[in-house]
Amino acid sequence: MSETTNNTASVMTLARDNVQQLTPYQSARRLGGSGDVWLNANEYPLPPTFALTTQNLNRYPECQPVEVIRRYAAYAGVQPQQVLVCRGADESIELLIRAFCEPGKDAILYCPPTYGMYSVSAETFGVEGRTVMAKADWQLDLPAIEQALDGVKLVYVCSPNNPTGNLINPDDIRYLLETTRGKAIVAVDEAYIEFCPQATVAGWLQDYPHLAILRTLSKAFALAGLRCGFTLANVELIDVLMKVIAPYPLSTPVADIAAQALSDQGLALMRARVAEITENRQWLQQQLQQTACVEQVFASESNYLLARFSAASTVFKALWDQGIILRDQNKQPGLAGCLRITIGTRQECQRVVDALRPLPGTNLSVCETSSTSKEPM
Fold first, then answer.
1. Which three-class secondary structure state does DSSP give residue 34?
2. Do the beta carbons of residue 153 and residue 106 sit within 8 Å?
3. Using 50, 70 and 90 to split pLDDT, how confident is the model at 14?
4. Is residue 71 pLDDT above 50, yes or no?
5. Among 15, 18, 70, 251, which is most exposed with the fewest C-beta within 10 angstroms?
6. pLDDT digits (tens, 9 = 90+) for 222-237
7. 3-state class of 11 per DSSP?
């Protein structure tokens, strides 16, 4: 036993200092639970059906599968040379840090409350993660960002933002792009853009050579298990990322299914899912606003709702015990008492409502939009 312990200790001492101190991202699957209603990972609730059309698994796949890129470019309204395909948007986050940030020298900047992988990826590569808290309405604090840009090579903006669900003001994104021109890359994370396609900044690529846009098939395309994502950017930026990406980022089956999902039929199915989830989200929001233990329900442009509860930990456990797994956001800056609820099927949404209604609460304030009525951050 002692020999095993010593061997383990010696391996740990060989790890980089920042890795020894690193707390891994707590994904939905790592958090565990034995529920049957999984509403904590922003997945589509039902599995799509695909069959492989290629069988040449004895050959290495294309580094950048041509048909996947051609179809995604057409869908996104960009040129094929402006598309990089990779293992989910999470790999896009890491590729940008690897390509543009010197460990121990450069910094990334992001605005909590937001997606946790920005900070984890920065820590992994030994890059400073600099934060500028979002304003009370979860919009960018542009003056504070400007003051914090010294040494920053990369800025992440999530819109719609996870976990709050709000869109970032496009004028603020444009201002940020002007401010960082020639100084830093601005990465706009559009993982949930299918739920508000009018808000994409993909049409801005021609104006901003330092703009990168992160996309995924994990949400509206119902393919979280596929691990397929995209970076949209101008050719010069794509060429830099190609220097650091793995030789074969997508397996042949992944590329096969991704191409099918991006066909005309696949896009039609995706848009039907978006309509269904949007309808369920609106229904659930109305029901939550009439529930005693819910203090606030915030407007969302995504496939989840953020709500503040009068006793969030009690609510979380009560639903957990009934097999309904939500995402606790209580430790995020400014989100005390908040839980995030992925929009599932109507039956799953009904399960949530039925489980919440018996729970006591003050129900002091119910708001339909994220506004300055929230506590300051």
1. coil
2. yes
3. confident
4. yes
5. 15
6. 999 999 999 999 999 9
7. helix
**Residue corresponding to tokens 């707590």:** 26
Instruction: Show the DSSP H helices in 195-311 as ranges.
Output: 235-242, 252-261, 264-288
The span from the CA of 99 to the CA of 158, in Å, is 20
Burial 36-70 (b: 16+ CB within 10 A, else e): ebbbbbbbbbeebeeeeeeeeeeeebbebbeebbe
Tell me the C-alpha distance between 271 and 282, whole Å: 17
* Measured distance CA(145)–CA(132) in Å, rounded: 6
Q: What is the CA radius of gyration of the chain?
A: 21
User: Is residue 3 pLDDT above 60, yes or no?
Assistant: no
Contact 84, 241 (CB under 8 A): yes
Check pLDDT > 80 for residue 1: no
- Provide the 8-state DSSP code for 221: T
CA atoms of 224 and 233, how far apart (whole Å): 23
User: Which token pair is 280?
Assistant: 């369920």
Which residue is it, tokens 């994990």?
Answer: 218
DSSP letter for each residue of 162-217: TTT-PPPPHHHHHHHHHHHTTT-EEEEE-TTGGGSGGG--GGGTTT-TTEEEEEES
- Listed in sequence order, the residues at least 6 apart from 48 whose beta carbon sits closer than 8 Å to its beta carbon are 221, 222, 223, 261, 269
Residue 2 binned pLDDT confidence (cut-offs 50, 70, 90): low
Question: Who's near 306: CB < 8 A, 6+ residues apart?
Answer: 163, 164, 165, 297, 298, 300, 329, 335, 338, 339, 340, 341
